[in-house]
Amino acid sequence: MKATTQAILLALANADRGEISGLPLWEHLYSEESVSAAAAAFSDHCCVERVAEGDETFLSLSIHTGTAPERRAVAGEFLNFLLNHTLQSRWQKAHD
Amino acid sequence: MIGIENRAAQPIAVCIGDSTAALQVDTTIYELDAVLRACYKYTDRCFLFLTREPESPNLVNILFMGKGQMDLANVLGEFCNELVDQSLRIALSREFGPIRELIVAQAFSEGNLLDSQRDEGDYASDPLGIGERR
Q1: CATH number (domain holding residue B85)
Q2: Does ipTM top 0.95?
Q3: Which domain holds residue B73?
Q4: What domain count does chain B have?
Q5: Are the C-beta atoms of B18 and A48 separated by less than 8 Å?
Q6: Which chain A residues are closer than 8 Å to B14 by Cβ?
Q7: A67: which of B5, B39, B116, B131 lies 20 to 30 Å off by Cα?
Q8: For residue B49, what are the β-bridge partners?
Q9: What is the Cα–Cα distance from A87 to B114, expressed in whole angstroms?
C-alpha cells in the first residue's frame, strides 16, 4: 500500500475524534463545485477546509458536536454526499 | 524473462481495525466508470472516499468506512464482485446498446425504421420485387 493510502487511512482513523485532516483530494474526480456543495450542506455539522499545497489539494474536516460515533457518521455522510454529488454531476455532463 | 510481466494480484485490500479498509484497483483492468458505478452502489452500506496515487495514475484507492457493525472483509469481497458485474454491464452496453436503442425506437415509432418501403410501399409499385419472376 502506497504512502497516500496510508496517510488517508490514518486520517480516517481519527474520524471518531471529529478531526480529519490532510485528505488528498483527487481533483480530476472531486470538483471544486462538489466540495463547495458538500461544505454548504454540512455547514451546520462541520467545518470544511480545502488547502492547496503545490500540485496537491487537501481536505480537512472538523466536527465539534456529538458523540464519537455521531462524529464519525457525520464525517462519513459528508464523504458520501461529496461522492454522490460528484458522480451525479459527472453523469449529467456525460448525458448533456 | 521474455513476454511475461510480474504483476501483483488485483485488487489489493488492506483492513485497519474493524471499520476502515482500503482497496486498490487498477483501472487498466476495471475501467474507471465501472469503479465509480460500483462505489455509487455501495454508498448505502459504507462511507467511501476515492484517491489516486500521484506516481501511479492507473491505480485508484477506495477508502471504506463501515456504517455501524459489519464485516468489512466480506463487504470488500462483494465489492470486487460488483466491479466484475459493472465491467460486464459496460461491455454489454457498448456491444448491444445501439441494438437496444433501435428496438426501443422501433417500439415507439409508427413506421418501419429499418426498411420504410416495407410498410409504406404498395402492391402496384412492388418495391421489394415480390411479383418479379425468378
Answers
A1: 3.30.1360.10
A2: no
A3: 13-109
A4: 1
A5: no
A6: 1, 5, 9
A7: B39
A8: B63
A9: 36
